[in-house]
Design brief:
Length: 194
Amino acid sequence: MNWKPIFKPREKTRQGAQQQREKTPEAFWLNQVIVRPVIDADLHRMEWDGEYAHFRRVYAEAYQRMQRGYTVLWVADLPGTGLVGQVFIQLVCDRPELADGSERAYLYSFRVRSQLRGQGLGTLIMDVVEDDLRQRAFQYVTLNVARDNPRAQQLYLRRGYRVIAPEPGIWSYPDENGIWHQVEEPAWRMEKVL
């Protein structure tokens, strides 16, 4: 292979990150966050005051897949504030190298409110998601991370993910008006053994 990722992992242990969070003022609000499965009433709230309204149909379809057992949707809810994060997990999809329904699950649509990034919320959400996948007997979790998103890349590297392949990152979605959009977001496919 002639491709190489352009980022390097930072040296920081998971335990060290947890200890650092406990020493900082934001630890109080972070301890109040509830990471839980999505309920029907969350669908509108996941649009984050219109910022992601264009994904309304995507969210509705993902929720229907969750009801059929193909997907698990999680939100991070901060009492008094609302939804501050979200992540979707495909348990099975048409690309078995991403999610095969038994050993491998695929993490996607991972978002944390911009003003709360870098404060431990992403780590908290990932802890819950990975623990849930272990309980479901999955052995691997895969994800695609945009090549131009070094902060997310660092989070995944710290958590033990490794780059296994380049991804073209071409996907499409219908917006809230039913108009289809194509996105090209070159990415790295990463994987972690659970």
